[in-house]
Amino acid sequence: MAFEQKIKELLDKRGEARMGGGQKGIDKQHEQGKLTARERIALLLDEGSFEEFDMFVTHRCTNFDMQKKSYLGDGVVTGYGTINGRQVYVFAQDFTVLGGSLSETMALKICKVMDQAMKVGAPVIGLNDSGGARIQEGINALAGYAEIFERNILASGVVPQISAIFGPCAGGSVYSPALTDFIFMSKENSYMFLTGPKVVKTVTGEDVTVDKLGGAMVHASKSGVAHFVGETEESTIQTIRELVGYIPNNNFEEAPMVATNDPIDRLEDHLNTIIPENPNEAYDVKDVIHAIVDDGQFLEVHENWAKNLVVGFAHMGGMSVGIVANQPKAMAGVLDCNSSRKGARFVRFCDAFNIPLVTLVDVPGFLPGTGQEYNGVINHGAKFLYAYGEATVPKVTVTLRKSYGGAHIVMSCKQLRSDINYAWPTAQIAVMGASGATEVLHGRALKEITDPEEKAKFIAEKEKEYNDLFANPYNAAKYGYIDDVIEPRNTRFRVIRALQALQTKKDTLPMKKHCNLPL
Fold first, then answer.
1. Phi-psi region of 180 (alpha: psi -120 to 50; beta: other; left: phi over 0)
2. Is the residue at 26 inside a domain?
3. Same domain for 445 and 382?
4. Number of structural domains found in the chain
5. Within the chain, how many helices (H) and strands (E) appear?
6. What is the mean pLDDT of the segment spanning 195-214?
7. Known catalytic membership, residue 436
8. Is 480 a catalytic residue?
9. pLDDT digits (tens, 9 = 90+) for 59-108
10. Catalytic residue among 73, 81, 99, 171
11. What is the span of the domain harbouring residue 412?
12. Catalytic (active site) residue 317
C-alpha cells in the first residue's frame, strides 16, 4: 500500500508541475491569445518525443515571503525531443509562474539543457515568454542571466541556437536571444526592448507604445533583430521546424540530404529572357532563386529587412545551401549598411555549420551619401567582405548582370577564395558603369565640347567603347576570374554539379586565437 501511495504522490506531483502557475494563469494566457509553455513544446516537437528535465525544481528565495510562492518547475519547462526525428534540446518559459521571471534556479535549468546540448551536439531552441529578472532575487537573478549568456557565447558556432519570442522579452533577457543564431517573433503579443515605454518617456520624453517600441514588425523591418515573423504562434513554430530541416545538428556534421524528384538537369527557359534589355530596369531575383532550387522551395531569412539583399536556405540536388542574392527590385540591388550586416551574418552562420554558399550577383555598387558614410558603411561592407573571405565552405558564384567596383569584390569574387564563378552572357563586370566611367576617363574632353549634339554623340561613342570592353563577362573570363559563361536556363544544372564536385573540399585558415572582425 505504501508503494502505491508513493506512486500516487509522484503522479500528483507531475500533475501539479504540468499545471504551472495554476488553471487561473493558464486561462489568462489563453485569453490573451497565447499558448502555454507546454502547448508550445507539444507543437514544436514530434508527438511523444519530449523527455523533460527538472520537473520538481523550486526556487530557493525567501526574500519578501517568496517561500509562500513556490511552484514545481519554477517557471520554465526544459528537456529534449525530436523534430522530424532529429534530436533537439528545448526550454520554454512559463508566464503563468510569476510572469515567467528568471530566478537563479530557472537559470540553472536552462543552463543544464544548454550544457547537455553542447555535449551531445544538438541544436538548442529557447521559447521565451518572460517578464525579466525576478526582482526578489536581486543579484542572483542577474548572475543567472550571465550564466546563460556565457553558454550562448560558448555554444556559438558549435550547435545551432534558435530563439522564439512569444510574449514580453525586456531588459537583460533580450541578450540571450540576441546571442543566438536566429530570432523568431509572433505578431501576436511578442515584443523585445532594453527599456520599456515608461522609462523611455522619463528619459527622453518620447511617448511610444509597446508595439511601436519593440513589436515583431519593428524588429523584422527596422532594427533587423528578428529574422522571422509569424502571423500566429502556431505558424511561427511550424517555421522553426522548417528551419531545422536545413541545418545540421552541430559544426562537425553536414546538413542532412533531402530526397527530391526534381531532376538536376531541369531547364528553365524563361531565365534566358529574365534580364531586361534596359540595364536600369528591375526584375525579381527571387524568380531566379525559385527557378533553380529543388521544387521551388526557398526559406527566406530577414525577409522584411534590408530587402536589397535576399538571403535564405534551399535545397539543390538534395543538398542544403545558403543563398545570397542582390535584389534589383529594391534600391537597384545596391549594398548599404544594413544589407552588408545582413549578408555577413548569414554567410558566417552558413560557414560555421558547413552549409555551402550560392551567390547570385547583380550589384551596381555601394549606396552613396552622408547617411551611409556617417553610419559606417565602410565597416559594415568590410564585415560582408570578411565573411566571404573567411568562409571555407564550398562557394559557387553566378553573376547575372551588374558587378561593379568594390561591391563586385564583396560579392564572393574569385579572389575571396570563391571556388567556382560562373556568369551569364548578360553579366557586366567592371569598376563602374559606362556613364560614370566615361565622365572619369574623358572628363577633360567633355569640357572642351560645347555643342550639345556633339557632346551627346561623343558620350554615346565612348560609352559604347567602354561597354564593348567591360559590359560583358568575357574580359573577366579572359583572366580566369570567371570559370565559365553559362546559358541562364542551365544554371540549376551547373550549380548543382559544382556543389557535387566541391563536397570533399578542404580549405584552412591560419592558426589564431580568433579573428578581429570589423564590428
1. beta
2. yes
3. no
4. 3
5. 20, 17
6. 90
7. no
8. no
9. 776 777 677 777 788 889 999 999 999 999 999 999 998 888 888 899 99
10. 171
11. 269-432+471-501
12. no
